[in-house]
Fold this sequence. Notes:
The chain is 56% helix and 14% strand. It is an alpha+beta fold and 280 residues long. Strands 2-3-1-6-7 form a five-stranded mixed sheet, with helices on both faces. Helix 1 (5-27) runs antiparallel to helix 2 (39-48) and helix 2 runs antiparallel to helix 3. The two termini are 53 Å apart.
Amino acid sequence: MPPSPLRKRTRLIAWLGAAVVIGLDALIATPVGLPVLYFVPIVMAAMRLPRAELLLLALVCSAARIFFGPVGDPLSLARVTFTVGEDAQLVSNAVSTVVGYVGAGWLVVTLATQQRAIRALADETERDPLTGLANRRALELFQLEEAGRLASVLALDLDHFKRINDTHGHAAGDAVLREVARRLSPLVRQGDLVARVGGEEILVILKGAGDAVAHRVAQSACEAVRGAPVEVEGGSVDVTTSVGVAVGPLDDALLARADAALYAAKAAGRDRWVSDTSPA
């Protein structure tokens, strides 16, 4: 697999950064030198590049730090005169430099790997395994974060879903749910929520959205679901959805209002959306 554009940019910046720091270390002779700046390209490499390349970059930086250290720096093997008894100390300092830079890179890699694992685990516990949508746990966390703030809630229920399961089998029902999730996801903005909260029940929460946005998304949801038959094993099935819409401060009452509007949409003939008209 070819490297991603992000990895290519990281590689370029990390190696250019290392070259700049090495150049500065070679030209600027100060008692302190530039040891800290070497960590910048090393950390960048640790975040995005393969471990073998990280090791190579860290070794290059270590060699440069040892070789180009300023006059008087005990790490500068190129600028000191070896005397009897100093060899061991110089070698010890050189080894410490290598261990420090390589160890720093490896530490960042370890921490980044652990952080990705934690995020993946959290995502797994907050995702519906069938559709990839958020689940009830994610919904509860979202409600806690957005409690009391303006939101639009769309309660969706696939029409006659039991008939699909009974006629075509549960595998077909699963295929329908996955396809509906795929069609609904592009309708919301980043930061909004699309959650599967029941068998064929889906809840959409639009942060900070008023009636106009909610009605537009509800109409788009109906059109997206009915847009084309869903291919299942042995044929295809037509799918429609009923949608209940409620707008107001986000709380359990708002979800209940959206649910009531959903039942009104079903009572009115399904394959449509109905907006709750009770006061916010």
